[in-house]
Amino acid sequence: MLFEYILQLADNQLILAQRLSELCGHGPALEQDIAITNISLDLIGQSRLLFQYAGKLDEQHRNEDQLAFLRPEKEYRNLLLVEQPNRDFAHVVLRQYLFDEFNFLNYSGLTNSKDEELAAIATKSLMEVKYHLRFSKNWVLRLGDGTAISHRKMQDALNNLWMYAGEMFEKTAIERDLVKAGIAVDVEQLMPTWKESVMSTLKEATLNIPEGGWYQSGGKKGVHSEHLGHLLAEMQFMQRAYPNLTW
Amino acid sequence: MKTKEEVYQILSKVTDPEIPVLTLEDLGVIRDIRVISDDEVNIKITPTYSGCPATDVMADDIRAALFVAGFSKIKIEQVISPAWTTDWLSPKGKEKLNKYGIAPPVAAVSLEEAIVECPHCGSKNTQVISAFGSTACKALFQCHDCLEPFDYFKCHV
Hints:
Structural class of chain B: alpha/beta
Radius of gyration of chain A: 17 Å
Number of domains of chain B: 2
Largest interface: A-B, 25 and 24 residues
Helix content of chain A: 55-70%
CATH superfamily of the largest domain in chain B: Fe-S cluster assembly (FSCA)
Largest sheet of chain B: 4 strands, mixed
Oligomer: heterodimer
Structural class of chain A: mainly alpha
Number of helices of chain B: 4
């Protein structure tokens, strides 16, 4: 049970990291290229800590690489939000911002987990996530309240991504049990704080929440958008083609 | 059998692969040394940034240094709690960074508010250009007096 929960946490960091890594050498400007790949690297590091821990609990004794690279699509438990494609820089920073605000609250909660290893990973990761949040928030403000074109692109990104945000606060049966045991964070309870921070940023960025609300979810149950399969095909290629490959 | 202190001396000569002026001692990443026998030793190290690729290289370099010193059974364990912060950088390490052209970390304020001295000319008239730099631990600054860009070792707490 704890194993599944850790995988779910790890998958979010890994899949978002993989998405961001696609921009390595393709960022809109050198500084942003470097920033995005740095964030990607932090998230890969955080996912490694989680996968290593999950590996210790795995009944099938898989190691971190096998857990990260050799599961089929339906076994990934990441949020739909983090697998969404990098349509443009507006989508990249907005996706990052919505997730960073959540990641910050979730890791903050996990620093008090009764599971010591999870608390240690959260404490370490949180130091990095605070830095990511500053970056993504600044870009949402700068581009949302920027030129007519940057504003339009940010509003389009918000219109496209907002529907996926609600899934962050959906609690699975496993989470429910682990919350009772004092191990997991109750994501439902993070929502009001998340919403308050996000609303205030979006307001300052002169962006409007789209009508229709939150209606897309499934990633946490392994039901993904068509984008994940393509991402995995690229990410898993080396381990599939050359099993047990190491650098 | 070698003493813990002797092993520490061996490890403290191993350097950071990305910032070769810093030793592992300067970085403050050596957590524990346990000498079991003439050829067996257990080491605990802590990663700096969780995704820093240098951490794996450091572990390899430690292994090599200990092997040369006569150990054949070397166990290196990574511990993440308490989490590493830039407060663990030694004063000597900070001095070395500055001489190498990387401004050492200053108090935990935002990059815009931090007063960072230019490692080239010593001016405090500097400004952040990019919050992220060539490695996870660095940000990019520019000096308004000598006009040179420089790396700043971010305050990570």
